[in-house]
Amino acid sequence: MNRNLWRRFKNNAALSVIYALTGLALVPLALVLWYTVIKGFPAVSHPEFFINVERPVGIPGSGISHAIVGTLEMVGMASLIAIPVGVISGVYLAEYGHGRWAGWVRLASDVLVGAPSIALGLFAYAILVVPVHHYSAISASIALSILMLPVVIRTTESAVGLIPRGLRESGLALGLPRWRVSLQLIVPAAAPGVITGALLAVARAAGETAPLLFTAFGNNLFTADPTHTMSALPLIVFRDALQPYTELQDQAWGAALVLVTMVLAINLASRWVLRRQIRLAGQL
Amino acid sequence: MAAAVDARLAATAPPKTRERYRTITALVSAAAPAALIVIVLTLVQQSAPAISHFGLAFLVRSQWDYQTLDFGALPFIYGTVMTSAIAIAISLPVGLAVSLFLAEPGAGGIRAAMGTGIELLAAIPSVVYGIWALYVLAPFSLNNLETPVTQHLGFIGFLSGPPRQTSLFTAALVLSIMILPTLAAVSRDVIRAVPRGLLESSVALGATWWETTWRVVLPTARAGIFGATVLALGRAVGETIAVTMVIGNRDAIPTSIFSPAYTLASKIANEFSEATGSVLYPAALVELGLVLILVTLTVNLVALLLVRSTQARMAA
Question: Predicted ipTM?
Answer without folding.
Answer: 0.92
